[in-house]
């Protein structure tokens, strides 16, 4: 059996501990403004290393200094504990 989806109340509780994140359908999303393009790419590199270590990978959109991280467990069809755990890791990396 795969990773279980979080219920709507569980997602609400999780987002209370992730104030920079919001829910959009079956995903949670955070947008970050990096001080410069190279610093944004460095943040992406650090997130990529953490995601690889967790074996859970976000969708990342890079628009100059604006980075958007989207988390959803595609194999489960929505938001799981793996997404909220990686969101906390991303928050630590971003600072």
TrEMBL record:
It catalyses: (4aS,6R)-4a-hydroxy-L-erythro-5,6,7,8-tetrahydrobiopterin = (6R)-L-erythro-6,7-dihydrobiopterin + H2O. The keyword Kinase does not apply. This is Putative pterin-4-alpha-carbinolamine dehydratase. Keywords: Lyase. GO terms for biological process: tetrahydrobiopterin biosynthetic process. The keyword ATP-binding does not apply. Transmembrane segments: none annotated. CDD domains: PCD_DCoH. It is an enzyme of class 4 (lyase). NCBIfam families: PRK00823.1-2. InterPro entries: PCD_sf, Pterin_deHydtase. Belongs to the pterin-4-alpha-carbinolamine dehydratase family. PANTHER family: PTERIN-4-ALPHA-CARBINOLAMINE DEHYDRATASE. Coiled coil: none annotated. One of its GO terms (molecular function) is 4-alpha-hydroxytetrahydrobiopterin dehydratase activity. Its EC number is 4.2.1.96.
